[in-house]
Structures are given as structure tokens and as C-alpha cells.
Amino acid sequence: MKIIWLAGILFILNLFSLHGQKLEYEIFIKDKQIGSLIAEYFKDADTSKFIIYTNAEISFLFSFELQHVIKTKFINGDLYYSFTRNEVNHKEKERTETKTIGRVTEFYTDDKMVNEITEPISYSVAQLYHIIPENVSKVYSERFGKFLSLVEKTDRVYELTLPDGKKNLYIYGLNNVCKKVVAEQTFADLVILLKQKF
């Protein structure tokens, strides 16, 4: 009986590993590492889940500890729910939710609905680390509650335009996983590099 139970556990673990992916990144300003990012992806028959955890510490005149999380769920290829939270020095500064109810998607900031979207959302920022955005021209932002423009600059290099006009470059390897992000900032560009080798 114990052997059967153990075999069942191993089978479930194998299924989990087949349907999950964890990517680990390091965040740099110039040559100095300031933090880390973990992107996770889980998939079963009709549901996909994406989770991103970001931790960073930035020091100029003052020191800031930044934490950011994105959790997104798709059902049958369309966004069903997302949640984001931004913290500075361990204090919540921003929280958003996206909820799809029937054919309407509602976006909330700090529990207040601020936007409605009537078209299906099939690709979001949380997916950018795991799935190369081929033939995608706009990406839903879980944080801003709107679609952002995406342009393929060269082969496997995509440029995302943020609401303030700043650009993020997403660079993909031959395995279609994002290997590098260059995020334009006011003070200096952030570079996010994949640690794993595929």
C-alpha cells in the first residue's frame, strides 16, 4: 500500500513539473545587482496561471526597498482574474485587480473600479517572460488596467510602450523564453537577466 501511495505522489509531482515553469532573473542598474525577479507559470487543461515576484533595493539620496507581485489567471485562453501589489519599504502603495464577469472585464485600483474593457484579453504583461508574443500588437497591463502597444523591433526583440511613454525591451532566446529585459527609467535603465541556461 505504501508503495502505491508513493508511486501516486511521484506521478502527481511529475505532472506538476511537466505543466510548470519557474524562471529566475537578476536585476541590475549598470553593473550593480539591485534585486531579483521570479516568474512562474502553471498550466492544466484549460487554466493558465502566471505569478511574478520582484524584490529590489535602490539607493541614491535615499534607500528604497521595492516589492512587486503580479498574479494572473487565464481560462480557455482569456484573462479571468489578476492581482498586483506594489510595496515601498514594506508599505503598500498600490493594489489593483482585474475581474472578468461575463463579457466585461473590470479593473479596480485600491478597491475602486476605474475602467471597463469589453474585448477579450488573451495576452498580458505576466506572460511576457514565458511566452514569446508572436503576432501580438497589444498587451494588457495588470497594473495599469489598459492595453499597451507592443512592436517587434527585430527578430525576437519586442518593444513595449508604457503609459508614460517609456519603453521596455523584451529579448527572447531560441527556446522562446525571455532572456533579457531592458526597462527604461528616469534615473537609469534597469536590466533584468535570466539566470538559467537552457
Summed up, what is this model?
The protein has 198 residues and is mainly beta. It has one helix at residues 2-18; strands spanning 20-29, 32-43, 47-59, 63-75, 78-88, 91-101, 104-109, 112-117, 138-141, 146-154, 157-161, 167-172, 178-183, 190-194. The chain has one domain.
Question: How would you portray this structure in words?
Answer:
The protein is mainly β and 198 residues long. It has one domain. Helices cover 9% and strands 59% of the residues. The protein has 1 helix and 14 strands, in the order αββββββββββββββ. The chain has a 14-stranded antiparallel β-sheet. The longest helix has 17 residues. The termini are far apart. The N terminus is likely disordered.
Largest sheet: 14 strands, antiparallel
Low-confidence stretches: 1-18
- Note the overall shape: globular
Terminal Cα separation, in Å? 39 Å
Percentage of residues in DSSP E strands: over 45%
Q: Strands of the largest sheet, in order across it? A: 8-7-6-5-4-3-2-1-14-13-12-11-10-9
Number of strands: 14
What structural class do the secondary elements suggest? mainly beta
Helical stretch tally: 1
